[in-house]
């Protein structure tokens, strides 16, 4: 069931991510939230399969962006 959130969006996403037990599928244009990325990495290290689809652009690929290589390494361990 889908639900729209208009307040406390990060908190709601964090709750949902923390509830994941087998798989997280994320599709967004830009992913720049360090706190949510850390939750996703934590879930990946617990064995949750993570799939992220993002735009291949300067925002997602910048040196100040998320370290997607770190997530890939965690999932391959």
List the total number of helices.
4
Number of strands: 2
Oligomer: single chain
Q: Strand-and-helix sequence, N→C?
A: HEHEHH
Main sheet attributes: strand count, strand direction, barrel closure = 2 strands, parallel
Give the class from helix and strand content and strand pairing: alpha+beta
* Biggest sheet strand line-up: 1-2
What would the average pLDDT be, to the nearest integer? 85
Radius of gyration: 13 Å
Distance between the termini: 32 Å
Shape: globular
Give start-end ranges of low-pLDDT stretches: none
DSSP strand content: 5-15%
Estimated helix fraction: 40-55%
What's this entry about, in short?
With 77 residues, the chain is α+β, with helices and mostly antiparallel strands. The protein has helices at 9-19, 34-45, 58-61, 68-76; strands at 23-27, 49-53.
Model description:
This protein is an alpha+beta fold. Helix content is 47%, strand content 13%. The protein is built from 4 helices and 2 strands, in the order αβαβαα. It has helices spanning 9-19, 34-45, 58-61, 68-76, and strands at residues 23-27, 49-53. The protein has a two-stranded parallel ribbon. The longest helix has 12 residues, at 34-45. It is globular and about 30 Å long. The mean pLDDT is 85.
């Amino acid at each position: 069931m889908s639900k729209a959130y208009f307040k406390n969006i990060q908190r709601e996403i964090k709750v949902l991510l923390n509830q994941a037990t087998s798989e997280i599928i994320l599709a967004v244009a830009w992913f720049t939230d360090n706190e949510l990325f850390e939750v996703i990495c934590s879930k990946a290290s617990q064995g949750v399969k993570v799939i992220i689809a993002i735009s291949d652009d300067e925002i997602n690929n910048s040196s100040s962006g998320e370290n997607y290589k770190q997530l890939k390494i965690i999932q391959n361990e």
